[in-house]
Amino acid sequence: MTLRVNLLSFCDKSVVGWSIALQRIGLVFGYGLAYYRDILRGIKHFAEQRSDWIFTPLSPDSQSVQSLRSVKFDGLIAHVYSVELAEALIALRKPVVNVSGVLPEQPIYRVSVDHLLVGRMAAEHLLDRGFRHFGYVGYPDHDFSVGRESGFRESLAAAGCTLNTFYEKDLAEVDPTGLWSWNTELPAWLRSLKKPVAVFTSQDIQGVKVSEACRSAGLRVPEDVGILGVDDDDLLCEMTRPSMSSVALPSERIGYEAAFLLSRLMSRRKPLNRAMLLPPREVVARQSTDILCMEDQIVAAAIRYIRDHVHQPIRVANVLKVIPVSRRSLERRFLTTLGRGISQEIRRGHVERAKSLLVGTELPMSEVARLSGFTEGRQLSVVFRQETGQTPTAYRRRHNG
Prior knowledge:
single chain, alpha/beta, 6-stranded mixed sheet, 17 helices, 12 strands, 49% helix, 14% strand, globular
């Protein structure tokens, strides 16, 4: 009898030890774009540490919004694209984290992208391609689009360039996947721009529309119109003809950080800041911006050589071997065209290559240095800090978390 009691006691404790208080997490998303799916991947990565989380997927449409009250949630992560959805989530009186850039004024904790930095990164990429005329396609009243336009415009102004804008109709009442109707005014606007022109769009789906509008207007991409989108949605970017360059966002990290933030809120640990804004990852260059729009073809050829060999420890002498002009003449041409010398352009190219490897790989610093044209890790660290104001390690940590 004693043995039986002891065994029963042991079993009872085992059952108690293995029991888990489950937490139901609502995921209020559309699934039409890679941006949302990558956020969900990030949420999933965090949830691998949380065996007590149970997901309930919900579409952010009006019918699903009405059903929110019928399910007992412990917390929610949502793409809040409408006031109606925001109010329905707030009314639940449960912890909510928003991963949208449409309605930042809503009193909901948010993890998103630093849209100003997205615009600045886009401007840097297009200016490096030699474009001097620019257009922007976005929305006039949505935070993500306004921020991206502002960063783009500021960087262009600093380079002495102006910007033409084309605003889409309000997206608040349409499909949150972003796959909305065609705008018949877009081809005429594109034809009116001085060529060659670079058009930056607030989302990849708009880039697809710009690409198709160019075809209907008889404009060549990238010879007449260079196109740069945002989100790096592989399907959309490869759907355009030719393939479209795009600013890649830290979507998976947004999902991970949103899940981490929700776990803190559910444990009643509120952060000091209501919004976390993450920097964009990089520009993924494809055919739509694969051009050097420069009147000085000597400079264009030199830059093309530098970019083709930026993974090697090249020097000015290497450039002069393939460009049939004197160093003094080439230096003068570089300063006139780019506002910087040959050595500066080479250093900048090495650093840009290092940035891409730091963000897109987990290679050790010695390998990043070697594949970026630096002789050793120490040289990478010194030059990288001189060019960016931060160490390679700090840059990787900031972008990859």
